[in-house]
Amino acid sequence: MEKLFELITYLFLGLFQGFTEPVPISSSGHLVIVQDLFNINKPGLTFEVLVNFGSLIAVLMVYRKDLIRLIKNGLAFIFGNTRNEETKSDFRFIIYLIIGTIPAAVLGILLEDWIGNTFGDKAKMVGITLIITGVALWIIRNLKGIKGDHDITWIGVIIVGLAQAVALIPGISRSGATIVAAMLLGWKQETALRFSFLLFIPVSLGTVVLSVGDLVSQGEANLIPYILAFLGSIVASYYALRWFMNIMAKGNLKYFSFYCFIVGALVFIFM
Q: TM spans, by residue (predicted)?
């Protein structure tokens, strides 16, 4: 019975993290809330990396056509097979993704301990940061933007990258922070959304690569629970991302703002 409960718990956490990762409500913040609310012991870094990898696979599935085009055109531009406006634009987009990754990578390494000690596992702090996320989403709720992929600048990319770095704080949504920053810069919704989730790929992939040693050392101790959480994360992330893309296309970001206000306030008051 205890083993069954463990399997259900891991599956639930995988589904929960997977669903909250793509939508702008902060997966890390919600995990803190759920663990505190239901007195669930934190599975550890290996678990977090694994379910994050599940979300990464879902993002790769959704944006596979964009990725194939970027890789194909990027290689064509680098090796000089085809150098035209399309390949030049896609190569520049790849460079921008690399630039946008740097702030979160650098600050994540430098401030990891400080963030963990200041915000980690503290539900009231998550309540505050969720309200901040709600305010940011409310500000951009009616913005449409006029700048497409060709109008992106390296300064704008750095700003979006810094926004992603801010989302290292639990309760600040990564997708929310990057999309808010992009929309405030005047980017179109589809450009902001695409850049946000393509920007998620190198950061997530880097985290997985750096944690390979921990994953291997885990051995078979929690193999089945981890597999369930991993698969749950893939499925939930895929459908949550599709749903979020549809919500954003309809201009309904305000509902996520309301959600963050309500949950943030309840957490701050009662937890």
A: 44-63, 93-111, 123-140, 152-172, 192-216, 223-241, 253-270
